[in-house]
């Protein structure tokens, strides 16, 4: 069993909380149960957790006695939720949040992994473990069966000699990987080029090294001139992903300063690599932040946003309004939020209410671009 922790007590906060959005599920419990005997044989600093949504795996392992757990969560909101849940439920837990790199898994003998949706993300995770973890490492990679594919088995076999598949339980399953393949190397960013921009993407970054159709429509309609663009009033690429908008702004406008923000670790690493590839790193500040928390009120004249609508594997219409509210907070009076969104989501009324007067700038069969002026 998973120890003394009741996973139903976990919360998603500060991420979106709503009916149907859970902080832990049967896959977390199955990963903990399948790995219990292996974890019992580990010492301090020998357990790593990757992709732990809100702390179920980390705190479940800590409650059962694991110490010095190293953790990587792609969304910054996940790190905050883990810290908050630990404080409430397992205050004795010892863990450290780290990037997806060699230090995360060096010497690890057990890795608990929630399978990501992206095969590229899984490939990067598997390669990192195989390249830097202990030779006797065992990886317990689990998820809900409806989100798992046979291709995930093939990806893990690309980095490990042996792969076993557990019996299904509660519509969940665990893949157990052993025997890191020799000469596996740490992952590098994938490369692409579109609209004159070099794009770099690590596994898990939205759209990979390509220009998604929503961002393409937004780029084609952004204003050629706008107030701001200075160090004190930078143009902001909010939820920047691989940083295509920020890189385009910086290359098209050689005197402009840009601020690119995303809560995804993969996105921020990708955006930083994109800036380097385009030679604009000195004029684009790339930060990992939940919303625009680092930005003062009324500090920007121009924000571009392609808001996500997934929270993990779940689709939610509550994510974008949070971003709209923080954009409104950061915009100066008469500042503009340029936003692209799936037309079926009908965000215009929400933008009018939260930000200010909103007009349609462009529309294609799937997406709408609007500009909202801060009251």
Structure, explained:
By secondary structure, this protein is of the alpha/beta class. The protein has 2 domains: about 5-180, Vaccinia Virus protein VP39 (Rossmann fold, 3-Layer(aba) Sandwich); about 190-375, Rossmann fold (3-Layer(aba) Sandwich), CATH 3.40.50.150. Helix content is about 30%, strand content about 25%. It contains 11 helices and 18 strands. Mean pLDDT is about 95; it is low at about 310-315.
CATH class of the largest domain reads Alpha Beta
Assembly status: single chain
Strand order of the largest sheet: 3-2-1-4-5-7-6
Low-confidence stretches: 310-316
The tally of beta strands, per DSSP, is: 18
Termini separation? 55 Å
The largest sheet is:
7 strands, mixed
Radius of gyration using CA atoms only: 21 Å
How many domains is the backbone divided into?
Answer: 2
CATH architect. name of the largest domain: 3-Layer(aba) Sandwich
CATH topology call of the largest domain:
Rossmann fold
